[in-house]
Amino acid sequence: MSTETVNTPYVNLSFTASPALRNNFQRVLVDLIALELVGKQAHWNIVGPNFRDLHLNLDAVVDIARAGADDVAERMRAVNATPDGRPATVVASATVPTAPEGEIFTTDAVAYIVSAIEAVVVTLRDVHGAIDEEDPSSSGIIEDLTTQLEQQAWFLSAEVRKPVH
Fold first, then answer.
1. pLDDT digit string (tens) for 72-125?
2. Is the pLDDT assigned to residue 159 strictly greater than 90?
3. What count of Cα atoms within 13 Å lies in the side-chain half-sphere of residue 48?
4. CA angle 145-148-151, nearest 5°?
5. Which residues lie closer than 8 Å to 47 by C-beta, 6 or more apart?
6. What pTM, to 2 d.p., does this model score?
7. Could you give the CA distance from residue 102 to residue 44 in angstroms, rounded to a whole number?
8. What is the distance between the alpha carbons of residues 145 and 29, in angstroms, rounded to a whole number?
9. 76, 91 in Cβ contact below 8 A?
10. Under DSSP, is residue 36 helix (H, G, I), strand (E, B) or coil?
11. Rounded (5°) CA angle 86-5-9
């Protein structure tokens, strides 16, 4: 019995992402990674009324972003594209606004994280058509992320909204 490792590369011969598809996935990936990071930053530093509920809701946002980034990166690999989630790449290309430094009051945290979610949703909606056109099998990932993140933005923004009479 041989102990040699056979390094047979997996090659999906049925489909390879174009540079445009790879770039669209990459835009989504860096925004999701950034959202995960700023969501945790707010989670750790939030203070004020309704702290506990918002603290837990921020974890839900982080979980969606983390799982979404993994789904997007793994889909990229499945279609022969290489994801780049290095910190320098995320900093250079994410559209998520910079997180406030230090403690953040609950209402300010809600406003900030909703703006961060909305930035990601803009990217998701911007790339959806092109991804769907080239690789309809991948568009479901984008649609699911859009739905989940829009729901979280609604949940969070409802914390600070006043009823319309």
1. 999 999 999 999 999 999 999 999 999 999 999 999 999 999 999 999 999 999
2. no
3. 15
4. 145
5. 103, 104, 105, 106
6. 0.90
7. 9
8. 11
9. no
10. helix
11. 50
